[in-house]
Amino acid sequence: MRENIRNFVTVKSSLNDDMIQIPIESMNLMLLNVGRAKHNGDWNWQNVSSPFIRIFYVVEGEAVLHLVDGDVLLKPGRLYIIPAYTVHSYECSGRFTHYYLHMYEGFRHEVSLQEVYELPTEVEGGEGMEQLFGWLCERLPDARLPQEDPQAYDTSAQTSDYVARYRDMDLWEKMELRGAMLMIMSRFIREACPRVWTNDERMRRVLEYIHVHIGDSIDVEELTKLASVTKPYFIKLFRREFGTSPIQYINKKKVERAQLLLYTTNKTVKEVAYALGFSDQNYFIRLFRKVAGITPQEYRKELRP
Predict the structure, then answer these.
(1) Hey, which end of the chain has fewer CB within 10 Å, N or C?
(2) What is the 3-state secondary structure (H, E, C) of 85-144?
(3) Residue 249 · residue 210 · CB < 8 Å
(4) What is the DSSP letter of 55?
(5) What is the pLDDT of residues 8-20, one digit of tens each?
(6) Cβ(46)–Cβ(89) under 8 Å?
(7) pTM attached to this predicted model
(8) pLDDT in tens, 122-147
(9) What is the CA radius of gyration of the chain?
(10) Contacts for 274-281 with beta carbons within 8 Å, 24 or more apart?
C-alpha cells in the first residue's frame, strides 16, 4: 500500500469507484516561459488560445479573465490556471503585476493531468509562492517572454529555442525545475476533483484506452470489442455519453496533440503524422485542416513565422 502511495497519484475515474493510477514519473512537466510582468491598463487581449498550460500568480492590482463559463477576477496572492486549448481573454484597467508560467506535459503515453482532473481555475497561492516564482525567474532569465502581447509571443520564433534550452539542461537542473513546477501544480491538484468521464463502465474503458493510445492507430472495431457490444450500439452509446462520434473524438484529440508537437518540436509534418499513428501524410493534413481550420504548415507558420 505504501508503495502505491509513494509512487502513484490514484483518483476515481467514474462513479463506480473504479480507479486510475498515474505514475508520479509520468507527470512530465516541461517549462516554456516564466517571468514577471507589470501592466497599467494595457493587459487587454482577446481570444487567446495555445497548446500549453498558462499559470498566473498575481502580485499587485486586479484584472479580469474572461472564460466561456464566465468571468474570473484576478486578485493578489492567488494562483490561476488556464488549461491548454482554452479560449480566453484578458482585461485590466489599472496597475496589474503578475508572474506567469507556461508549461506543457511531455509526450508520453500515460493519461495527462488535465484528462484526469477537473482543475480549479483559482486557488490560494500560499506561503512562499512569490518567492518560488522569483527563484524561477532568477534561475531562468532567458525564459522571460520577449513581448507582453500573447498573440505576439504565441507566434514567437524563439519557441523551439525555449524547448531546446530545457531539454539540454543537466539532470540536476531539470530536477530542480520539475520540483518547482510540481509544487505550483500541487496547489491546483489539492483542490481538484476527479474528472468523471462517464458513468458507463464500458465507455470509461474505451475513453481511457483512447487517451493512453492517442499516438497509435486506433480502430473503432477494437474499441467495440473493448466495450463488449455491437458496433452500431457502441457508436450510439459513445455519442450519447460524449455528444460526438468515436472517430470525431479521436481525431480531435490527435489534432490537439499534433498542435503541441508542431509548437514545441521541429518535427516535419510527415513526422508528426507518423507520431500520431497516421501512415498517410496527405490524409493527416486534410484531417488537421478539417478540425483546426488551417493546414499543419499554416498552423506552424502562425505560431513560429
Answers:
(1) N
(2) CCCEEEECCCEEEEEEEEEEECCCCCCCHHHHEECCCEEECCCCHHHHHHHHHHHCHHHC
(3) yes
(4) E
(5) 344 443 333 444 4
(6) yes
(7) 0.81
(8) 999 999 999 999 999 999 998 898 76
(9) 20
(10) 275/107, 275/215, 276/214, 276/215, 277/215, 277/216, 277/217, 277/218, 278/217, 278/254, 279/217
